[in-house]
Amino acid sequence: MKNKKITKTNAMRMLDKKKCSYTVHEYAWSEDHLDALSVLDKMSQDAGAVYKTIVAVGDKTGVVVGVIPAQSELDLKAFAKVSGNKRIEMLPLKDLEATTGYIRGGCSPIGMKKAFPTYLSHHALDQKSVLVSGGKRGTQIELSPADLMAAAHAKVEEITQEKDE
Predict the structure, then answer these.
(1) C-alpha radius of gyration, the chain, whole number
(2) Membrane-crossing residues (predicted)?
(3) Per-domain residue ranges for the chain?
(4) pTM value surpassing 0.90
(5) What SS3 state is found at 53?
(6) DSSP secondary structure string, 60-129?
(7) How far is CA 71 from CA 38, 68, 84, in A?
(8) 23-161 CATH fold
(9) Per the CB 3.0–4.6 Å rule, which of 42, 91, 111, 159 could disulfide with 11?
(10) Per residue in 1-54, pLDDT tens?
């Protein structure tokens, strides 16, 4: 069977430049199921491995990025505090591509248009590897938490709360 050539994204090019080891995983996606839990189902990884990228705007710092487990919710108060803000709100979806260079369902914490302050959930340190968006829909990048921190210039913080069932 012939291997399909993977088109490199900004995220992959940045990882190559930093000489970080990563594995690309591709999956079928649909416009109706772009959320992280749908990706988790498609990837059939254990629940802690898939991480979602959340872009928000702080009242003092401007754009900030959170990277949290798929099954968790961002704790806005904790996120505001660790990022040096009083208040924080989600970046409007209509502004996502212009701000980051990525679209919904393909927003990677690595290789955004600009380097924004990035915060990785402390849960990642419990994982051997994590999966984050590869920079386009249907693509995930698996890498070590240390390489993710290095590539995204991320600080590890407690920024999540468990979802209410």
Answers:
(1) 15
(2) none
(3) 23-161
(4) no
(5) strand
(6) TTEEEEEEEETTEEE-HHHHHHHTT-S-EEEPPGGGHHHHHS--TT---SSS-SS---EEEEGGGGG-S-
(7) 10, 8, 25
(8) YbaK protein (3.90.960)
(9) 111
(10) 445 667 899 999 999 999 999 999 887 765 665 555 556 665 655 444 889 999
